[in-house]
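Board work, copied verbatim: ABC transporter ATP-binding protein
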Amino acid sequence: MTPDPAPAAAPAAADATDPLLVVDGLSVSFATEEGIVQAVGDVSFTVGRGEIVAIVGESGSGKSVTAMTLMGLTRSPNARFGGTAQLGGHELVGASADELRRVRGAEIAMVFQDPMTSLDPVYRIGDQIVEQILAHEKIPKAAALDRAVALMERVGIPHARERLRSYPHEFSGGMRQRVMIAMALSCSPQLLIADEPTTALDVTVQAQILEQLRTLRDETGAGVILVTHDLGVVADIADRILVMYGGRIVEQGTLDELFYDPQHPYTWGLLGSIPRLDGPLGVRLPAIPGTPPSLLNTPAGCHFRPRCPEAFDRCGEMPPLVARSPGSPGHCDRCWLEPATKRAQRETDGRIGLRTEGTVIA
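↓ predict structure ↓
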């Protein structure tokens, strides 16, 4: 796998040094009958204008909860929040329902994982896109319909004007996802969140959807948060990567830093579990042993400690997320091992991976 990122420059009017989104100390917990679920803990990151930031990790790592909290979609009587999230001067975590309603869709939009359940099955596609536009702008319905046509053409839907009268079930999975992207872009948001946008799509359609996201980023200068578990998707499109485990960020850095110089053992395990086309046949892939921790009762210290073959006594203390490699101030991780030790121990069978006795067949 050879990532070849080609980040586009932000529009000239945008200040590249001024982040579009600043998340600081975000925490999300839910009260349940079994106890408090700490879904997200002390998460901090930024997204710049025209930048694609990927959040990766196993199911249950907290990546989708993080994204949905920015949209205000995790609010409920049993939810508790901490920290802040500033989008272009607007506070998202502490915003009222009315404030969020004005921002959501207009300044921040989301493409959900399953477009079939995200679109209303009894309303035509055109009506759903137009409703989104009219909710935020006072323009004639005819103008909103014209914009819907232009948006559908922009994301590659043929015969867009005729397809406005189609229902969701009359579209393929890939075309429904394009409709979701068109709807998300209908009011030119500053930030687009794509939550597993290529799940359950074949690889050809995946490539088309990723190309659409990249093109739209280049054309509009919008920031993009891509939530995914697929590191192949990340290598194709992301500028920076956040690796989450147990509700926390365990490593963050640029695409090259994460793929060529990963510092956290969990990242080694994710990279090592990817089959390579140029690898020998019949070779066993190193797998991450065990299962993700219960967020009801997370392990003391490093959350990855029970599954980590490199764990030692100090791992009983939670390591801070800091830069540990000289010359890479933006490459941060939560691991007490020294960088030189990490580089020596992350090699398994000639490639980056997690040293473990548990293996799976490639």
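Residues 116-188 form one domain.
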